[in-house]
Automatic annotation (TrEMBL):
The keyword GTP-binding appears for this protein: no
Family matches, as InterPro entries: Arc1-like_N (IPR053836), Glutathione-S-Trfase_C_sf (IPR036282), NA-bd_OB-fold (IPR012340), tRNA-bd_dom (IPR002547), Tyrosine-tRNA_ligase_regulator (IPR051270)
Domain TRNA-binding: 245-368
Protein name: tRNA-binding domain-containing protein
Gene3D superfamilies linked: 1.20.1050.130, Nucleic acid-binding proteins
UniProt entry keywords in alphabetical sequence: RNA-binding, tRNA-binding
GO MF, one annotated term: tRNA binding
Signal peptide region: none
Compositional bias segments (type: Low complexity): 211-222
Organism: Cladonia borealis
One Pfam family cited in the UniProt record for this chain: Arc1p_N_like
């Protein structure tokens, strides 16, 4: 947010909340202003993080010199977000709603009818702008002549709502068609067929009936068919254990879009990181048109927050998610720090340096240690302590490259001879090497 734009937003808020937002309010105070504006509302920690992120997004929307494609992508992402929400947080008002309104209202005023409610228009944004400027929920004092003129009846294209029953039937037909196309027989009524076969097997044979009728020996009891001896069940073979290897760790290039201080922990940052996840991936969300993860890292006080903005890093993406002071963290940012000497305690004072992917690497690109290639696990089982066992081998070289030294990992002693002795470098698919700024012989975690 530029200084002039930030002052304009503060002036806009001051006009509606003169006692809560004085003209001298600093831009950095806005993320925590929601409770002051709406004291009856309680915000969870994840919601506080979302407010801060939406404030950043509001500053990036409607920037005159921004790339048009990127701008359209952000508007589209916001439009989709609002399609199932009344406010940015769902139903709770926040300072972010006022910021988005302040940013977008002038742009919406200039939109054509097609841009507003056409087939490819931003229907939900237009509805949202009208709601924010008129609903008492937000408490905004906007003069009538400054409001966006929106005719709620002027809709150029009506999107047909999805009928749950029709959608279920459609999916059922698609599944049947896919099965037919793959020559897969549908097992409909399989239970009935079994019953019919059973009935046929019990039907009397005419010859046997006649024979039985002419038999005078009533003392002979029919013999029962001998039961076939069942073969003993073979015990299930336990799944083969995958040998311990650093390839089990899902290491990827990540792009930090935004980082803020954790609202409840002085030592933590909360970063919004694009890691190349496809839409629908568990524990992800959408931010500015990208699928992202929220990641808590204990770097506050060790790395300036300015160095955590809009930068590429290396992330560990298959650790089990953990909630840190109310916010779920679903990855880990790799950083280097001096290796502790024997008997020395970790005081977490640094120095600490983030691991840098090679120039040109893109978010989501897999990285691995040379000679240890392979597919990573989906989610590492915490009981097997894969990360804890392998992390001591993560190191930096005299040339400031990041590498893996199997010889220092207790469970891999002797295995390094098969893979080649020495430190194996952390590289991208294109062969670029991951590095640190200045720490030699450091531990990486």
């Amino acid at each position: 947010m530029s200084s002039s734009d930030g002052k304009e937003l503060i002036a806009f808020l001051h006009s509606s909340f003169p006692s809560a937002i004085p003209p001298t309010t600093a831009e950095s105070d806005l993320p925590t202003a929601s409770h002051t504006l709406y004291p009856s509302i309680t915000y969870t920690d994840p919601e506080k993080v979302d407010i801060s992120h939406w404030l950043t997004t509001s500053a990036r929307l409607a920037v005159p010199d921004e790339d048009e494609a990127k701008h359209a992508e952000r508007l589209g992402s916001l439009n989709i977000h609002l399609s199932t929400r009344t406010t940015l947080l769902g139903s709770k008002p926040s300072v972010a709603d006022a910021a988005i309104y302040h940013r977008l209202a002038p742009a919406v005023k200039g939109w054509s009818a097609e841009e507003r409610t056409g087939e490819k228009g931003y229907h939900h944004i237009v509805r949202y702008i009208d709601f924010v400027q008129n609903a008492p929920l937000f408490g905004l004092s906007i003069p009538a002549d400054e409001k966006v003129d929106i005719d709620v009846n002027d809709v150029k294209f009506v999107h047909k709502p999805i009928d749950p029953k029709e959608e279920k039937e459609r999916k059922k037909k698609e599944k049947a068609a896919a099965a037919a196309a793959g020559d897969t027989p549908l097992l409909v009524g399989k239970g009935k067929d079994k019953g019919q076969d059973h009935a046929k097997s019990k039907a009397p044979n005419p010859e046997e009936t006649a024979k039985a009728a002419t038999t005078n020996d009533t003392t002979t009891q029919p013999t029962k068919k001998e039961k076939k001896e069942k073969a003993p069940k073979q015990p299930k073979q336990p799944p083969k254990e995958t040998p311990l290897s650093p390839h089990l760790i899902d290491l990827r290039v990540g792009h930090i879009l935004k980082a803020i201080p954790h609202p409840n922990a002085d030592s933590l940052y909360v970063s919004t990181i694009a890691c190349g996840d496809p839409p629908g991936t568990e524990n992800t969300s959408e931010h500015e048109g990208q699928i992202v993860r929220k990641v808590c890292s204990g770097l506050n006080g060790l790395i300036p927050i300015s160095e955590m903005q809009d930068r590429k890093i290396i992330a560990v993406c298959n650790l089990k998610p953990v909630t840190m002071r109310g916010i779920k963290s679903v990855a880990m940012v790799l950083a280097a720090s001096p290796r502790l000497k024997e008997g020395e305690e970790d005081n977490h004072k640094g120095p600490v340096e983030l691991v840098n992917p090679p120039e040109g690497a893109v978010a989501g690109e897999r990285v691995w240690f040379q000679g240890w290639e392979g597919e990573p696990e989906g989610v590492l089982n915490p009981k097997k302590k894969v990360w804890e066992s392998l992390q001591p081998g993560f190191t930096t070289t005299e040339g400031l490259e990041v590498g893996f030294e199997a010889g220092v990992v207790e469970a891999l002693k002797g295995v390094e001879e098969e893979r080649g002795q020495g430190v194996r470098l952390l590289v991208t698919m294109s062969g670029g090497v991951c590095t640190v700024k200045s720490l030699k012989g450091a531990t990486v975690r």
